[in-house]
Amino acid sequence: MRLSADLKRSVPFFSPRYVGHMASDLLLPGVIARIITTLYNPNNVAEEAAPATLDKELEVGLQLARMVGWATDPSATPCAYGHLTSGGTLANYQGLRNLTAAKFYGVALAAAVRSTPALLGAISARGEAIEGLDDWALANLSVDEIITLRADAMRSSAARLAPEARAGFGALVESERHESLGLFGFFTRHPDLAGARVLAPATAHYSWSKALKTLGWGVDMMGTVRTDRDMRMDVAHLRELLEESAHARVPVLCIVGVLGTTEFGTIDPLGAITDARDDARALGIDASIHVDAAWGGYLATIFRAEDGGLIERDALRKRFHYFPSQEVYDAFAALARADSITIDPHKLGYIPYAAGAYVARNRGLAEFVSHSAAYVFDARDEEEDPSDRMRHLGEYVLEGSKSGAATASAYVTHKVLPLNERGFGAILRHTIRSCEYFYDALGEWRERMSDRVKVTMPITPDTNLVCLVVNPAGNTSLAEMNAFGRSLFSQMSVELDASLQRRDFIASYTSLFAENLAPVRAQELLAELGIRPGALAPRPRGPYEDDHVYMLRHTLMNPWLMQENERGRNYIDRYLDHLEHLIDDATRRV
Ligand SMILES: *Cc1c(COP(=O)(O)O)cnc(C)c1O
């Protein structure tokens, strides 16, 4: 009873007056599935601990794969696969780990072949025996090429080696891999490879830096790609970084494209990113593409027809005022060309924590991280259906024991609301429309407020997040404007010692850092706000008030935001009324 009483201090995510972080009301099918499954407490680490929920986890992976346009027919190649994780963070780690494992597999395989005379000339890539390829070439095969290469190695070793020699060869390959040698040992043995890099936009979630620390690479290996004025990846800069990497012979483990940035909801141009990757192949460099769609993944349901096809942009546009822009449409259409993806069911899937997902376009990618990899040169294992092997899920994932209840929650939710425009898409359309309403309403509101404050929306929303900057009329100091923003936020924040029930609305905040803005854009923004030119300058990260623009941030994911009260005012109208009230209070105090 004390717990139940204490839980009243929790953040009321369920309320449409909560427009802060990426949390909202939950879908009942997922809640019910979660509760009833918890009583059986299945452990999806392996099927023998989860006879009823493990296959459902793999099915959820396939449901999400179809949502982004990947093939899931097990008789075809490639066939996708996916599984749940505790969240987007772990799914990103999984993405990096799998792509890294595949990246350096060819290097290890060639080294093992060089000391196995019976296999010389037997296994080839790009039309050449692999022992003849140099490490740089071997580290720049595509995901699909590496998967084919591994299958060839399996076949050739079965044909040319006796069972015992085959096991020995398998162990030799393993001993050459960086997973055995460690990164230091591996790169010492392969001095032609000048380390490695991940290319991710400046807007990437901090889980990517965490991943680089955790997986032993170190954050300095991150190649940060600049963003453009819309806070989307600047593909011209990506092209430069790819060229530079090819020139310096630094393999790129992956390019991270963000589908729905955490701070702004913006969408990286995945089509142009994939084209840049394809073009770079002419320079001898290959980079896989992992899409971090922890936030925006489910928005793909808006684009997906019931028959699984992609809906035309013109047909979609009839349902919105602005969405989807050509750039956003092209990005969703290009998802099918990526290699792997992170999607969070516990964000826009509206199911309880903890539920993230990792999905790959080609299920062959899983084999590089199987914990029993040393044995898979055993032909018997190869004959097995790959999805049967996945029943020992714990061998393929970063986690061990994992919740079958989270699986049930996602599975039942996807059954009740299929991942297409008629199911999930119908809910998510509301979130985009709420954002469009906010955008339009802000025009009038800004006019009405112009005697008191200057207001701008520095980033045109791509999806369902809105950020605002508010500057008191006549103020030219950046530091003061930021302090004013903070004072507004302090009336809409979650504070441990304040009663949340007394808040009219709860919002969140973020900042635009000078280092992430082109100088021209920074000047333009300051001019719009009436701030002294030159006030915004890049600085080493620190407690400065003038190296960033403080913004109120609103996640508009609650599907009930457009519900009107008895006076015909919806939650967005009421939020703007509230903000006006806070501004009047604060300016009076000033
Ligand atoms: C939320 C988010 C993550 C991290 O996901 P968790 O579920 O919080 O671990 C990663 N990337 C993006 C783009 C996100 O929005």
Brief account:
This protein has helices at 2-6, 28-38, 54-68, 88-103, 105-114, 135-138, 143-160, 163-176, 178-189, 207-214, 235-248, 270-280, 300-303, 313-317, 326-334, 379-383, 386-389, 404-416, 424-449, 478-489, 519-529, 571-589, and strands spanning 81-85, 124-125, 128-129, 197-201, 222-225, 252-258, 289-293, 340-343, 356-360, 453-456, 465-472, 508-513, 548-555. With 590 residues, it is α/β, with parallel strands linked by helices.
Could you explain how this protein is built, in words?
With 590 residues, the protein is α/β, with parallel strands linked by helices. Among the domains are: 109 residues, no CATH class; 84 residues, no CATH class; 165 residues, Alpha-Beta Complex (Aspartate Aminotransferase, domain 1). The chain is 42% helix and 11% strand. The strands form three sheets. It has a seven-stranded mixed β-sheet, sandwiched between helices. Strands 10-11-13-12 form a four-stranded antiparallel β-sheet, sandwiched between helices. A hairpin with an 8-residue loop joins β10 and β11. α11 packs parallel to α12. It is globular. 47% of the residues are buried. The model has no long low-confidence stretch (mean pLDDT 95). The structure holds pyridoxal-5'-phosphate. The site of pyridoxal-5'-phosphate has 13 residues, from α4.
Supply the key terms.
590 residues; alpha/beta; Aspartate Aminotransferase, domain 1; seven-stranded mixed β-sheet; four-stranded antiparallel β-sheet; 22 helices; binds pyridoxal-5'-phosphate
